[in-house]
Specification:
This protein has 6 helices and 2 strands. With 226 residues, it is mainly α. Among the domains are: 45 residues, no CATH class; 106 residues, no CATH class. The protein has a two-stranded antiparallel ribbon with strand order 1-2. A hairpin with a 2-residue loop joins strand 1 and strand 2. Helix 2 packs across helix 3, helix 2 packs across helix 6 and helix 3 runs antiparallel to helix 4. It is rod-shaped, with a radius of gyration of 56 Å. The relative contact order is 0.09.
Amino acid sequence: MICPKCNNNNPDGINFCQFCGAAISNNEATVSVNGGSVNYRNNKQAPNQQYQGQPNYQQAPNQQYQGQPNYQQPPYQQYQGQPNYQQPPYQQYQGQPNYQQPPYQGNNGKAPIARRDIAIAIILSFVTCGIYGIYWFVNLVNDLNTASDSAGDTSGGIVFLLSLVTCGIYGIYWFYNAGKKVDYISRKYNGTASDNSIVYLVIALFGFVIVNYALIQNELNKVAAN
């Protein structure tokens, strides 16, 4: 608190100057600011006095500086040249195979084997006392191997010889496997199952092998190309 008489600074709250004894009013005081004197009432300074050269803190709290990026833009912008991820997740490339087609197609759905007349084959087998039956059986084995994609299996001639050596036991075994091959052919060319392995086995056990010839030949005729 500045004394109005001697201009000495006194502590706040006193009524008389400590230096000259002059009376000092508590309602008005004079202070020195920047080389001059300023009077304040009730011993209270102005609540908000801005000094020269200080920044203005009353400006807007969010002032965007020049050159800064605009963070109010959309959070995601697709750059030019980037792929369009909104396309369907899967696109089939041109030239790829169509896996919905059947896995195999032969000569228009036919096997490269010859068609035989079953009735004539049976008659010739009886007329020739079984000689034509041997020829028929050998060709039947070879055609079955070809149609079932088993060209490397035992040929018809070897199957016939092994059947003779084993007194027909190998022949019975072959008829069982023939049922599996016929099922493969039926699935491959016709799309239907036809596993008659047990039927062929039982017929062979009773000795009616010519019946098996006819049944197998009938299945081969369904897929024969010629």
